[in-house]
């Protein structure tokens, strides 16, 4: 079980020129875009091709720019108005999801551990928790035990490989307990690895038994006051589990905890672009540009 501990962990960041990024997005776009987009009327005459819209969104995430207004000032959006840029970006929402899913199937992560954890995605400052109206009925108030604060918004559950590739994610209400969504997240990744590492939030016999039926082995550290904690809490597994904290630090730099979108589509697209940006960075570090050829 511990024969894979030598895999090195990285804190992946995208470090390529925009021209290279545009080439990558062009290859991905023409592989996944439906004909209704690639062969639409006057498609060849557009000032900014669709793949450059995707590249600009990825670049925005890499630069850590959460404000569309600031983004528009930095890039000028290549002559497009902000509303026009946003409409075209929303039209590409399904394509980014397909790209993420296909990249997951192509990256070789066999025999690696899967690590699961959650992070808060607040929509306002804590002082406004009771007055917030954005995403009313979808978001709610939850408690983050790590930072010890209540917040209004969502909770993001992520599954990553032991060397830091984002395998999948689900976004849920802030109040829902971690263990309730863990099984759905794990099954949706369709990973070949069958050993799951989580933190204390995933302790529970019901989840452990459900995952065992699905063919997974779950490991979570015991709390210090639990019987056998010292023998169970292996330092090697604890070190591997901390990989997801390195991943979260990059996702936070990409502003995943500060999404300013106020529509469901806008919020979904921002999360997908952040995950796509991170995974492209991983692939470039591990495989190089040739992976996209």
From TrEMBL:
InterPro entries: Tnp_DDE_dom. Residues 113-254 form the Transposase DDE domain. Pfam families: DDE_Tnp_1_3. This is IS982 family transposase. It comes from Lactobacillus porci.
